[in-house]
Amino acid sequence: MEDDYFSIDAILAENQKVGCRFKVDITDMGHLGGGGERDITKSNTLQLPLWMVYTVVLSDWADMIMPPAFGSKVRNALSAEPCSVRLASLVGAGGLWYGFGRTIMEMLDPRLDDKKKDMSDLLTNTFRKRLYEVIDQAQHFAALGPAGGVGPAGDSAQSFREGLDGTERELFALAQEGSKRMKRWYEEGEKVRR
Amino acid sequence: MSLPPALRASVTPPELELIACQELVEIIPLIPMEKTAFIAGAYGPLRPPHRASIPIWMALNLKQKKKCHIIAPAWLSVEFLDAKIKQETTQAEFTKLPFHFAEISRVLLDGASDDLQNPDKLRTLLQDLREARQAKARAGLESLEHSTLGLSNLSAMEINEIRPFFIQAMAVLKQLHVPPRQP
């Protein structure tokens, strides 16, 4: 998610395609769209890999279209109930929704500070509201022990867990590991006592 | 780093226990002992039946050999903990407890439960207290910010438990934060 060149997370977060509407004609580059046309024509929309979008947008050859993962539909769903949105399915398996969002945020027109702020607020609020549930479930699972237990009541919880994005998954694992260690420590004492 | 990932984020509970065992505790010795120098300092002399203050690790060792009685710290009593639980559940902030209360109470309950009054009750009370505080710490997650975190009166063990994911969560928030533009 960070800017570090060597960060695997940063590379994975950029493994996404973003729609771009071209403002100029570009000859002999039609193969980028995967179609049969020879040229990219004006107002044509293409799905470009994120690393290319940087150059294309900054050179003012095209406008970026907000990816559906951050579109109004998702925004509305998130403002209604952040925990019921499956972030993972928005960015594909192993995807990093927050990382992707951050990259998009960085690419937004620097002259439009409000838009950037909006995006940051969206990401931050979503993260914060979901975090509680993430930690709650992680601790719950740590308490269950290796046997685990998926009751019939776990439907919404399970769907939430499946919808976690990569960043949240990592946090889940951290919290679970921490709680497990604590549990082990407390139980060790009980064994000594017996 | 060559440490396994689990050890990188924070120290382990047994390590904290070791640190906590440096704290002093009062004992009633059953054997006399001259003042003795240890790496951590000089302790003693022990003159039964006068009380003496020695580190917990030493007290537990003597206790194991039935050479002393440990006097429980004032906070390790049913009345005190009862009051603390009441405070904990009525106030928004954490109540003040000894920094190492979780570790000390556990080692004393394990090693010297016959010197404590009503150890079973103490155990349940400590468990209740821990759960109340844990719930509070979790509720604090919702107001987590990218730059600062204030959780006063949290004990060593609790800080240690939440440290790994609080750090990670704050790092994520920092990445998502747009600094206000310089005028």
UniProtKB/TrEMBL annotation, chain A:
The protein's job, in short, is: The GINS complex plays an essential role in the initiation of DNA replication.
Signal peptide, first to last residue: none
Task: Domain (GINS subunit): give its ranges.
Answer: 73-186
Pfam families in UniProt: PSF3_N, Sld5
DNA replication complex GINS protein PSF3 N-terminal domain span: 6-53
Q: Which InterPro entries match?
A: GINS_A (IPR021151), GINS_bundle-like_dom_sf (IPR036224), GINS_Psf3 (IPR010492), GINS_Psf3_sf (IPR038437), PSF3_N (IPR055221)
Q: Which SUPFAM superfamilies match?
A: GINS helical bundle-like, PriA/YqbF domain
Q: Does the keyword Translocase apply?
A: no
Q: Which UniProt keywords apply?
A: DNA replication, Nucleus
Which CDD domains does this UniProt record tie to the protein? GINS_A_psf3, GINS_B_Psf3
Principal localization reads nucleus
Question: What is said about its interaction partners and assembly?
Answer: Component of the GINS complex.
The text of the family note is: Belongs to the GINS3/PSF3 family.
Q: Where in the cell is it found?
A: Nucleus
Stated name of the protein: DNA replication complex GINS protein PSF3
Q: Does the keyword Nucleus apply?
A: yes
Spell out the GO cellular component terms annotated for this protein, sorted alphabetically and separated by semicolons: GINS complex
An example GO BP is:
mitotic DNA replication initiation
Lineage of the species this protein comes from: Eukaryota, Fungi, Dikarya, Basidiomycota, Agaricomycotina
Q: What organism is listed for this UniProt entry?
A: Mycena albidolilacea
From TrEMBL, chain B:
Q: Which domain of life is it from?
A: Eukaryota
Classify the main location: nucleus
Q: Which residues form the GINS subunit domain?
A: 75-176
Localization recorded for this chain is:
Nucleus
A Gene Ontology biological process in which this protein takes part is: chromosome segregation
CDD domains per record: GINS_A_psf2, GINS_B_Psf2
This protein's UniProt keywords: Chromosome partition, DNA replication, Nucleus
> What SUPFAM superfamilies does the record point to?
GINS helical bundle-like, PriA/YqbF domain
Among the entry's GO cellular component annotations, what is one? GINS complex
| Annotated family | Belongs to the GINS2/PSF2 family.
Its subunit composition reads: Component of the GINS complex.
Q: What is this protein called?
A: DNA replication complex GINS protein PSF2
